[in-house]
Amino acid sequence: MELSKRLGVAFHDISLLHTALVHTSYANEAPGRVENNERLEFLGDAVLELASSTYLYTHFSKLPEGELTRTRASIVCSASLAKIAARLGLGDYLLLGHGEEMSGGRTRTTNLEDTFEAVLGAVYLDQGWDVARDYAMRELASAFANVQRGEAIKDYKTTLQELVQKDPDAVITYVELEATGPDHCKHYVFAVEINGKEQGRGEGASKKEAEQGAAKDALARWKKRMKK
User: Fold this and answer.
1) Catalytic residue at 117?
2) Is the pTM value of this prediction over 0.85?
3) Out of 41, 100, 117, 217, which one is annotated catalytic?
4) Contact status, residue 121 vs residue 138, Cβ threshold 8 Å
5) What is the pLDDT of residue 174?
6) Are 191 and 174 in contact (CB under 8 A)?
7) How confident is the model over 121-136, as pLDDT tens digits?
8) Which of the residues in the chain have pLDDT under 70?
9) Closest by Cα among 107, 116, 125, 105 to 76
């Protein structure tokens, strides 16, 4: 299979890679029972977390636990994984339902992120831990290089949480304000509240993306207040 060659992984069971490319919208519209990629995505997410955590623990020996967590979050965030998936051309191979296809599903950040994780899950089941770990680290190499240069993609939620935790009595909450559109093309709006008072808003194609936007907005407002 062309994609297998592009990934640099010689699959023993190519059906695993095929399943990794099946979006839920396609499975729902296909006649008969067709397995989607959500279970492989779940597995790939766990592989990704362990692989990146092990690398950080080994190569960044001076970073405390909090910094390790924040750095890992920046490396495996939606934007980073979607960028990898786009570079691999995974969107071109996705099997999508009609509605998802027509609404731009091949380039949607959440779809690309989920597909990369599903592919990693497929690599793990087919090739085992060592190959899956090495593959994950190969694809994440540029992200780790960015971290070493201090250019990691920001995890705004973690940054805001660390800022808020300076006040032991402060409570941070993310509140869903809107969820519009069909299931295959949702649009979310979230607010972030500190001690019940709204501090920022964000929106996106996933709850995670909207929450990050809200945290980013709250941090920007905080910086403006500090400059006054």
Assistant:
1) yes
2) no
3) 117
4) no
5) 96
6) yes
7) 999 999 999 999 999 9
8) 148-154, 184, 226-228
9) 116
